[in-house]
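Lab notebook, bench 4. The sequencing result for the construct came back, and we need a structural model before the next group meeting so we can plan mutations. Quick request posted to the team channel:

Model the 3D structure of this chain.
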Amino acid sequence: MSEPFRDPARPVAERVADLLARLTVDEKIGLLHQYQAPVDRLGLAPFRTGTEALHGLAWLGPATVFPQAVGLASTWNPELVRRVGAATADEVVAFHRKDPSGAGRNVWAPVVNPLRDPRWGRNEEGYSEDPWLTGVLGTAYASGLKGDGRVMKTAPTLKHFLAYNNETDRCATSSNLPPRVLHEYELRAFRAPVEAGAAVAVMPSYNLVNGRPAHLSPLINDVLRTWARDDLLVVSDAYAPANLFGVQAYYDDPAEAYAHALKAGLDSFTQDDADPAATLGHLREALRRRLIDEGDVDAAVRHALAIRVRLGEFDPIEPFLEITEAVVNRPEHQRLAREAATESMTLLKNDGLLPLTSGKIAVVGPLADVLLEDWYSGTLPYQVTARAGLAGRAETVWCEGVDRIVLRAEEGYVSASAEITGGPLTTGPSAEFDLFDWGGGAVALRSVPNGRHVGVDDDGVLVNDQPGPSGWEVRQTFRMEDRFRGVVLRHIFTGRYVGISKGVLGLADDPENAAVFVVETVESGAGRAARLAAEADVAVVVLGDHPLVNGRETEDRADLALPPLQEELLKAVYAANPRTVLVVSSGYPFALNWAQENVPAILWSSHGGQEYGHALADVVFGDADPGGRLTQTWYRSACELPDLLDYDIIATDATYLYFRGSPLYPFGHGLSYTTFGYADLTAVPGEKTLRLEVTVANTGARAGVEVVQFYTHQCRSRVKQPVRALRGFVKVRLALGESRRVGVDVPLRDLAFWDVTRDRFVVEEAPCKAQVGPSSGVIRLCARFDLPGETVPPRDPARLEAAACDEYAGMTLCEAARDRGDAVRSAEPGAWVRFGDVAFAGETTAVVTAAGDEGGVVTLRLGDPLGEVAATVAVPRTASRFEPAETRVHLSPVTGVRDVYLVCENEGVTVTTLRFHA
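Done. Here's the predicted structure in token form:
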């Protein structure tokens, strides 16, 4: 074979080196964009990164749609998740064969951001609030996507690195992470898929981390790549590179910004869609100005080429020729979609009403007879709705339970076209509209004359021509704001109000021109649903979210409440028929407080894909035991949550790891139709692993599924430890009366915490408790064990990094320098950081490295933020916070191990280090 890079028998690194050596500098630069340029003289085809495949192939036409990622996670079945990934990979390959330019084999999935806050708009995309479980499930899905052969089916990309859990100002906000939260929580979810070799690429996030754009994070090269077995490709998020010199203004011009991104480890620039000209021009300018050199370009190109080699692109025989269009939505994938949806069904409450046996069912609710696609869903090839699934098993009656209204303005009633193509809304003969409440004040209007939703066209005219809320720019939702004589309609996407001009409804430039409407109810949806429920043996109310409204990419939720009109519907149905089952279909938790107190049965799942209705029926009628378990805490109120932008889960007692309240449903919660008993928990630490075992028995009246969850708690520690932390689980199916011994092996390194005194993980010698139960909130048994490890010594006074403090208040983390390092910055007078257990030995000089916008004063105190003053340090005014000054001051003799508090007496002081020298 004449060209070594085309020889599959050679090592990947050798093939890449050969190909890299054949490329000119300009050809190499052409490979740094999402749309990589062809190299015709070497026979290299165009290549593109970025096919969406979060829970099935997305955006390219009908393909198998599996449950949303958070729903796949609720199965607590990594092997099932792997199989879903494998099925998705086959469909990606099939689409790629049909259209290589439209369906690339670098897939942007899975999302492994831990679900720290349930208000995050993209909650549906993640797996769990627990980083270990997220890593397990992310590894499973990525393994399925990648395949297990020499040649990868697809190249999975982890999203989004790092600390990304808010849509609010996501490109401008900084996620501030103390070292323990960084290493124990955020990084941990990424480590497992990379270390296992399941994920071969990573995408940085839009946000900043400790003041530095994530796309410039030194963690990409210093940490991520040290975990990888092979070359790791790093691709930017869409349009994120321009933020570096745009909204983030971190660098002054594109060439400088792109140069630093390349040096930080970014290999592929996703910018300007399919037009690479500007991006490549900036990189050529950076090379001309010697901001980067050819070695920097080679490093990035090497990572990109390694992925292409491993995808078999340069092999003499095209891989996976046996995978054709016939695999797309094939019967095996349909059965897998049903299995995944069934296992994801999570029974939150059951007073004995479920499973149903027979009788007439009233199926009501805005989600009762529709399946909704989220932004990263594929196109549903068919839909089995809740109504369809239940109707296949019993006599049903149905209604959506939404209000039917007319709108009357001073100019007259609102009229709508009856043509299927729709038309402008005008004043004239009254038209009826169905009113959908999706929460957060967002409503949608569906015109009865043609069954189409009202949207706003490019000219700002209201038109009834939409299938429903859809698209990146959702133009079909409004807020109804009260006025003295009625309501005004505010278009959510544009923020403009609806007015009437020459009889046509459109968006008004001046809010004063907003039309005031009187809402007249033609028929109460709740009333109609209640009448149907009263005549049925049981009512099934299907409620939840619209995946593109009030909680989606670009939009966080403000609270956890059910949409008000949906809760009103539930209450009306329950009043008419107490034999009511609440079925919630959503990509995030709700505060179901009233329902938990009143409704006898509550079942949750994510939006479950094309087979949702069959899965629901399988569980409701007892053909399948509900096998789902929650992978995040369901709170009673948003008041129990810290600020959305506060990422310090340790300081704020956030997630089940640190939350000390009583949640509505705890992490891991989910009921079975049978009961289980636990006996004889043992915890035996070995040289490298902790063996946890328990006997679990089916003590109920039928076969069932239990997810046996093992937790540990470290009883004594130098640092604040989790209330309990998941260490392993076993999903077990037991026949009536069957018992089984189950267990897990926990690597002792998993019990380590990040020691800020020495910048490394440490397993601390300590007494611990092993715990086991069906959830984090229901612990059946405990067993004590002694964790073998080391004792953390006192802190070295000559080495105190401000960002590596033990505790802080009034401080924000920030970057110490543009390219690397962290510092703290006082946000208010009296802000402080604590360094615990500092060992002193007499005469001491303190050296504070700090910068001040206007100068400042730092006070060193012992034992308490208001304790004994050891020294007062004047911080000079500096030209930049990136140019701190060292200030030395002599202390009176200090001996013994003491807590040191560094207190900033004014805001705007940036502290990098504190040193004590004898």
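Residues 4-325 form a domain with the TIM Barrel fold (CATH 3.20.20.300).
Will bring this to the meeting.
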